[in-house]
Design goal:
The protein is α/β, with parallel strands linked by helices. The protein has helices at about 30-45, 60-65, 95-110, 130-140, 155-170, 190-200, 240-255, 260-270, 285-290, 300-310, 325-330, 335-340, and strands at about 5, 10-15, 15-20, 50, 75-80, 115-120, 145-150, 175-180, 200-205, 225-230, 230, 275-280. Strand 6, helix 4 and strand 7 (about 145-150) form a beta-alpha-beta unit.
Length: about 350
């Protein structure tokens, strides 16, 4: 395993990061089997594990904690996240000091450790000043409970504002970003990845297999393509994405690769990408993912991919992709009726 430096933290991590979202009730409910999967990944050289409080409502963190007992914790770069709702109380979510301090304490208890190597804000919080968030994170770092802090799904403008705020106020900087990135979802190539490279921010990209579409399991013309793990994801039935998958399969075959291995090799080939998050639910899935470790793509293959999905573009959109409030709330992009009438 060829390790990479996580931004400018000095921390060395594997190019594959083991994502723990599928461990627990929303994926693999068998704790012992999940622990075996984690152990096999660690034995294969993966030293980076990413989880979150929201994954199976804390159960994922508990499973990861079980897997790291017995002396494995010190050899693992452990990352978790907070922000998404962890209950009905409106204050059990977000990027406020009030919640982040509590959320981290809860995560440390479930993980069975006294610190995490990376604590990430799971989504931007439009209701909280970024200075408030960074101030709280700074105190957690100084208390020794967190080694580095990062973000997930932050737009480039938010990343720049956070860097500026940290410098001006003498606070810790966000050292990592966790954006979505795959052959079908290349939007971050326009601004997010260049901004991360400029500020020395490491990236651990999620959904490198485009929500499962780049495994070859979901094909054009097949039935039940909208269902994955009991969820009705619309992107799995997106004809535009299915069409490109059909075009990518022969590219992979000509290169002597599976579609899965080509897709993973594509994302880790970008100089701005530190690690790709893999999220196996079964041992078989992990074995297949690990079999592609070390795969590199030649310029001829990358050129063919660029011809099918031009750099910086997206084919359709993942259901779970982040959209800022200005996109989600009509009232933020429309003048009031009386203003429109007076115009």
């Amino acid at each position: 395993m060829q390790y990479r430096t996580l931004g400018r933290t000095g921390i060395k991590v594997s190019p594959y990061c083991l994502g723990a979202m599928m461990f627990g009730a929303q994926g693999n409910p068998d704790h012992d089997d999940s622990v075996r999967i984690i152990h096999k990944a660690l034995d294969a050289g993966v030293n980076f594990v990413d989880t979150a409080d929201i994954y199976s409502h804390g159960e994922s963190e508990e499973i990861v904690g079980k897997a790291l007992r017995g002396g494995r914790r010190d050899d693992v770069v452990l990352a978790t996240k907070a922000y998404l709702p962890m209950g009905d109380d409106p204050n059990r979510q977000g990027g406020s000091r009030r919640w982040l301090v509590r959320a981290l304490e809860d995560s440390l208890r479930r993980l069975g450790t006294d610190h995490v190597d990376l604590f990430q804000i799971h989504r931007p919080d439009p209701d909280t000043d970024v200075e408030e968030t960074l101030s709280a994170l700074t105190d957690l770092v100084r208390a020794g409970k967190v080694r580095a802090v990062g973000t997930s799904a932050f737009p480039a403008s938010d990343l720049v504002e956070a860097q500026w705020t940290a410098e001006r106020r003498g606070l810790v900087r966000f050292r990592t970003e966790q954006p979505q990135y795959s052959i079908l979802d290349r939007g971050i190539e326009r601004e997010v990845l260049p901004v991360c490279e400029r500020y020395g921010v490491g990236t651990l990209v999620w959904s490198p297999l485009a929500g499962g579409m780049l495994t070859g399991r979901y094909r054009k013309g097949r039935e039940n393509t909208t269902h994955r793990g009991g969820y009705g994801f619309r992107y799995l039935a997106d004809e535009r994405r299915l069409d490109v998958v059909e075009q990518l399969i022969p590219v992979a075959e000509k290169a002597g690769l599976s579609l899965t291995h080509m897709a993973l090799a594509f994302v880790v080939s970008h100089p701005g990408v530190t690690s790709a998050i893999i999220g196996p639910r079964t041992m078989e899935q992990l074995d297949d993912l690990l079999a592609g470790a070390g795969t590199t793509l030649g310029d001829d293959v990358l050129d063919e991919i660029d011809a099918l999905v031009p750099p910086g573009t997206e084919v359709g959109r993942l259901d779970m992709a982040y959209d800022p409030p200005a996109i989600l709330r009509a009232g933020l992009r429309r003048r009031a009726p009386q203003e429109r009438a007076a115009a």
